[in-house]
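okkk here we go again. third time trying to get the zinc ion bound version out, last two times i messed up the smiles copy paste (missing a bracket lol). double checked this time i swear
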Amino acid sequence: MLSDVKAIVEAQRDIFGGLPYEHYTFILHLSDRGTGGLEHLNSTTCGTQRFAFKSRKKYRRVLQLISHEFFHLWNVKRIHPDVLGPFDYNREVYTRLLWAMEGFTDYFATLSLRHASLFSSKEYLDNIADNIKAYEKKPGRLVQSLSESSFDTWIKLYKPDADSPNRTISYYLKGDLVGTCLDLEIRHRTNNQYGLDEVLRRLYDRYGAHGTGFPESVYQETIEEVTVSSFEEFFHNYIDGVTPVPFDHFLRYAGLSLERKYKNPDFDEEHDEKKAERSEPTAWLGLDTVVRDGHKLTVQYVYTSGPALGQLNPDDQLLAINGFEVATDEQLKERIAVDARVGDTVQVAVFRRGELMTTSVTLAAAPEDEVKVVPVTNPTVEQKVLYESWLKAPWPGENV
Ligand SMILES: [Zn+2]
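finally!!
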């Protein structure tokens, strides 16, 4: 782990051309709780699960956490809008730039893991695909913009309720994805001379290195200065607006495209690879569940984009589908995703505030459940060059 953290420090040092401290301390708490961290000027406090080091999947999260908190020593602790420093912990502080503070920190955290060879190119692209999947699942992406999400964090992101996925979008998640698109757009417009890192370097040199914050409008101005072009439309659509982000358009600058497929819900890993996918969409109720009191399979969210809207409510305890018990997520998946088809109507029995009720839901198609970022078949020289300088990795050919 020490050598991995060293590689993270070196990869991020190379982005800024030096380290702005004499000594930096990583404090790592291991427990049985979740994952999280807090950035300070010359240190960070990170918490992670005690047994997160042997599984590659969990260890990737540990590396992302450490990389994220370390990157904050520049982005947020030194590069920040003026309201964020010196920080007043006694009251709410309002900024429309948390997508750049937290989302871009997430973006550079994972990108520097790629640069440090701690993430393979495939792991890096799979991480983008997972984020796209999570973003597209949330109807709130069409309701709340990134700048609103930042400004309203005190009453929304940190005060989630049963309707949060329908009304809000995380500035971490979408900010990370918009950072990806912005980096690719800047590289494309400047013939790969500059990337998003140049924007951060200029903000650091002009403000952060002198211990001052900047007015919020400076962010867009600095991007426009780096590219000598307008980003009015980009900000209007993807930062201050809710226009769906056309990921394919931006990924194509790097010779990549999005591939969307339907997963076979009955797929058994020991079977033939081809059975992992199927041509028809999976049937979908349009809700997420949570287990309450140790055994009650309960509706947590009902998506406004799904067919259960108006039929089932958050906090309904699921009991049966077509008369057969559903006590676990596995049983629910079997009755809906495996057994049923899009267009089937199912009878759903629930306890609603202790009262037995039955309602019918006509199943819809699940949003594409398999999204992959893959290389295009005939890349141009420009696409290959951009890909290689962006990820500091050779063009993958057909192998990703
Ligand atoms: Zn953070």
